[in-house]
Amino acid sequence: MSNTVKTWLFFLLLLGVTVQQATAQTRYTISGSVRSKKSGESLIGASITVQGKGAGVTSNDYGFYSISLPAGKYTLLASAVGLEPQTIELQLDKNITLNILLEEEIKELEDVTVTSSAKGRSLSSPQMGAERLTINETKTIPVLFGERDVLKTIQLLPGIKSAGDGNSGFFVRGGAADQNLILLDEAPVYNASHLLGFFSTFNSDAIKDVMIYKGGMPAQYGGRLSSVLDIKMNDGNNQDYAVSGGIGAISAKLNVEGPIQKDKSSFLVSGRRTYVDAFLKLSSDSTINNNSLYFYDLNAKLNYQLGKKDRLFLSGYFGRDQLGVGETFKLNWGNATGTLRWNHIFSDKLFSNTSLIYSNYDYKITIKSAANDFKVFSQIKDWNLKQEFQWFLSSRNNIRFGVNAIHHTMRPGEISSSDSSSFNDKALQKRYSLENAVYAANNWKLSDNFNLSYGARLSAFSILGQGDFYTLDTDGKVIDTTSYKKGEVVKTYVNIEPRVSASYTLNNSSSVKASYVRNVQNLHLISNSTTSTPTDKWIASTNIIKPEISDQVSVGYYKNLAGNKYELTVEAYYKTMQNQIDYRDGADVFSNDVIESQLLFGKGRAYGIEWLMKKKVGRLSGWVSYTLSKTERKINGINNNEWYNARQDRTHDIAIVATYQLNKKWTLSANWIFYTGDAVSFPSGKYRLDDRMVYYYTERNGYRMPNYHRLDLGAVLQLKKKKKFSSELAFSLYNAYGRENAYIIEFRNSKDNPNKTEAVRTALFKFIPSVSYNFKF
Amino acid sequence: MRIIQNISFLLILLVTAASCRKVIDIDLNSADPKYVIEGIITNQQDSCKVLISKTVNFSDDNNVPSVSGATVTVTDEAGTVTTLQETNPGTYRTASFQAQQGKTYKLSVKIEGEEFTASSTMPLLVSYDSLYVTETQLFDGKEKVATVQFKDPPGKGNAYRYVQYLNGKREKTIFVENDELTDGRTINTELLIFDDDDEEDENGEKKNKIRSGDTLRVDMMCIEYPMFTYWFSLLNASTGENQNATPANPVTNIRGGALGYFSAHTYQTKTIKVP
To answer: Which DSSP string corresponds to B222-234?
Structure first.
């Protein structure tokens, strides 16, 4: 473990350097929290700048901020998206606690211009490859079935690609769908989709903040290669009771929140359920009304302010899907997560958060036919402990460090059946692992122009017994089996993941940034289907399946134009990926205990340029994004060991999103999407075998699906606004010009001429209108 | 779990009632023709048969060119070489051959200076006990399903393939299973059919729907494990009709670069009148 020792030395050195730097001058500290005055919600990423000094900080994930300055007279400006900025004058001659409450933005009635504070992208922060969305920003964007969905909104950003028509799955910078770390109040969500991917598990009513990192991931995040999607739930209004809800084309939702004790504690409960099945039941056709198809989810949160220095949060998510064909086939799946967090302010400069997190995903299949029955159960369950410190050394310097330990239990598949069934009871081996990490990062403002963030994450993934582990030959045959006892360490993979980024401000409206990150992933999703199915299986690294490793370098140019009305972002990246996984031809990944025998390993590379032009103020707001990219894989045993396009390789990807505030009542919106068709394998010939036609393939992903494009239109009508009650009607039309985008293309004998073969395209959504009614009081 | 993929996909179509299917023109590359060898040898008299043809382009007719003039031999464990005669263009047979359970056979095909070889071991026969019809709730309501019953011998590694004929018409669905989850049990396998709509007649009725009074025949073959892999991969990745993300050619046991397979298997058949 000399590697570990070296890393610790590195961390100590790092701390030493910065501490020395910080103690050079006597300073006083202003610290406290930033909150919304109306709801008491803490504000994430609110900025506190010192007028005329260029110094500034942003509030952390819990609304806490701390800034240290030499004694003197200062004017602070506190601001956050959608809220009225506030200036505070103060005389600093001792450490002070300053809690800031920001008011709702006042909209001038005669002039309906959206007065979103003209605050450009932070040019000086070294963070790159990141986008923040507030739920307000997503409200007017037209969506499928009128169901607002953050996972679909982020797909409109450059570098983030949709997994398919109407799908909430996404690919980031050439990565696979399982390479996104999706967190809900810090808890990993293993299957973020409902109804086979058409809806995400995130009920937008309960969500406060969405942050996605495509590159330059801060050191506190780890475990996935391509992105981090950090979603935070509302804390609950601690000032007043509030009820909001909506009735849409396919679902209804209700959100209730309020103070338990004003200013001190609050609760939030938010639920949603679809009622497609109610329509199925209405059908007189027995082939339809026997089927079941629904999902529901529930978000709940409690938070307590325990004195001045401590705050406690308890949040949970629970969601299930049910899908069934009569009594014959039933599939039930869902996630449950729970997070207990304790914020503690050790001093005005040292903020601590401790989290205990539980995460569970499981599915159950029940099959009952005339002659057979069986049940399948599969589960992944985590217990996760995190300790993090944020140390605000000075206005130029802060340090974040922490530890994280996750215990994973995986039950890949357990089959049970009755005596008369053809099936044996069988349980694939349970797998246990421990994912540990320590990290530290320093944000350092070296000069007025130059900012640096550097740090590292040391991750150690231990595969634990009990269980059998295998040695395979090159054909995937088992040549040796080793049994390990309970708790025995089979193997530990130790990796150091450097995270470095820097920004250089060119002038007051533009900057350049560069970053390098390494990410390591030890959990892998096994799926061989074009659609996201609930039975896709998570497996951990084993003695044979090595950790996936990615290295990404990116550079970017940022410019705020026309007095911060427009912001332009251009980023380019190059990423290499090691130990990528694919399947052997004919792989059976469902019933095989030696899953490694069904897999092949190789490498990947992805590169591209992303442009984003955003207009945030004025009647017309929105953005245009364009991505030019390439992503390839090279896996021994596939495509004659040559590089081939990954399925999600799409050369061009364009999204135009526009919202227009027509008058006080109407807001209109539209978005248009275009992307190059997926890389797919189509046959290059056919032959006769077993008295039928079979297709002949010559290369992996050598063809393209047809290009995808569609226009969505939306309109929101603000109904009569009373003092306490407000409501709106949201209309949307998905795929407004009825483009038949190919969902899949199949090949078969021609219906008209059995002596010919033909290609058949299935298109899913065309002119899908929807209306939903939302209210708030 | 192919069944889950199938059902999930059908449900997607159900949910998205607006979905539509259309025949489209698609520009597919042409590939150099490849040989396709389909070699069968069973425990029945006169059953040794090797078919040789070539691949064609997707846009061509389904009448594939047969390959004549090949030298086809089968060698048994004792080293006895039997040469097959071309009885029809592309069809090679021998009458003097009946293969034995548990024995390994080698196939050699020589065509225009190229040689393709394969070997296959005939598994022990597992007795085909019964063929009957069950009714199960599927998408179109209760449907009659052909069901095969037999007792799987203890020990994993057995694999089976079935071919269904309804009123003499062969069902194109490939039915294949192994005993990974069913080892040693009395197995009742229901031959579920997930159709493509090219199997519908003008009235939208399924051509292969089983009705009372129909004549139903199901052949059962005990196949060796590499042949299970062949059929399983063919079914999952080469039939052009499912949602597998990575279509590919099946895992063949033929060496030398031809498509197809060589299978030594047992053959049993049963025919019933559907009650």
So the answer is: EE-HHHHHHHHHH
